[in-house]
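Predict structure. Chain length: 326.
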Amino acid sequence: MSDGRQSRRTVLMGAAASWGLNILSRRAVAADPPPTPWKPHYILASAMYGTASLAEVLPEVSKTGANMIDLWPPPHGSQRLEIDSLGETRVAQLLKAHGVRLGSIACYGLGPFNVANEFQMVRRIAGSGVTLVTGASGKGGAIGNELKAQIRDFLRKLAPSVAAAEATGGILAIENHTNSMIASPDSIRWLGELVTSDHVGIALAPHHLPQDATLLASLARDLGPKLKFVYAQQHGKGSKVKLPKDEELLQMPGRGPLDFGPLMQALATMRFAGPLEIFMHPVPRGVPILESLPAITAEINRARAYLESLLGEETTAHHLREGSVP
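Prediction complete.
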């Protein structure tokens, strides 16, 4: 009799303990904080300020919610040249003094096959993780299997540049550009599929694509980890001929007709970790987009507030708490 009671007591105690542990486990799960909302990793394009010096541009970086700078050479800007004129050590000191990281260099003039020395240089200044953005060799126009074969051949020729990126911990991002081999949605997807190195991918430029919000979001999702850099720039009324300033500014997010919502939501879902650059091309190249540094910074912040309004109330509130939205 006592053995039966003892056995029953043991079973009841075990069940109670199990129930208690289950309650505690549920409470622990319920107490887990929600995932941190995705936050864009903004990078400031030096070319937005024309030929202003690094000493003038670097204080603007943090004001735009960024902590990285993208250095542009002529004809778009002059700041990349300051690495040569001031020296790597002085540029590194300036970056450190302003709490800014060298995040990218526009290397269109060098082309995709001549970036090895640039990767070595940026590693000396900033360590690993710097993105070099360039275009693809070859003209556009091919379709289907011919285009796919061209991309395969391009990637074979790109092997030394890929090796340089891997050796220095850098990223090589190929921009889709009008009249380039990498210009169409198909070419973008195929390059993403055919690339095997984590150090190479696409710099997505909506400015040079059909102004289709759903298509842009689809391209970002299809690229996945091969998406390395995003330009927040739309076509607007173009950037080849001189236009009144209010029309030229239609390239900026929130001014022209392109809805950046699907793209921003796709980036948030992917938790995109690469640089996002608010950008436009002035005419002529090399002039600032507006008349003063404060006006340019204010315009970038206007565009940034628009982009972040597309991410939902929770994300925007998170940014406001951090003081990153004006």
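Summary: The radius of gyration is 25 Å.
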